[in-house]
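Q: 8-oxo-dGTP pyrophosphatase MutT (NUDIX family), please. Structure only.
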Amino acid sequence: MDDAGRTMIVLDASDSRFQLRAGALIRSNGHILIHRALGDTFWVLPGGRVEFHEASAETLAREIEEEIGCQATIGPLRFIIENFFALADRRVHEVGFYYEAELSVALPFHETDIIHRVRDGTADLEFRWAFPSRSVLDRFDLQPMPLRDLIERMPDGVQHLVRRAPSSALRV
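A: Structure for 8-oxo-dGTP pyrophosphatase MutT (NUDIX family):
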């Protein structure tokens, strides 16, 4: 579908936003891939907003190809997180689907360096590997916060969580 026919599932109403997101659990050398937009203080799993008439797994395959530049096999759904937070003085209700994913081409691996950069629309993104322990993911402020424990424990089956950030917190 061309860009003119693409519409993300985002609803803005007054100071609130609803969005549907898909994220990838991509692994290498015992680490997990994370990314952020330059200037953000927090990191997230690679992925993006779901578009109308697109399944969340299709979103993930498209986002990986756009941002990382290779195809990916999207595996099983692992987590569903309903995340309520504030960002830039806006209250956000986000539903996120998080899948296992495997890249068709391996990314470079380095434990401490940025391994990939890309421009995505108006955002410059940077990617790196992180050890999947709660303490390391805390250091990167991985969001949404429940992912930190889920990634460290990797419980069986699909996990569904609801996370409500304190109303005073202006972050994801």
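A: Brief note, in case it's useful. The chain has a mean pLDDT of 94.
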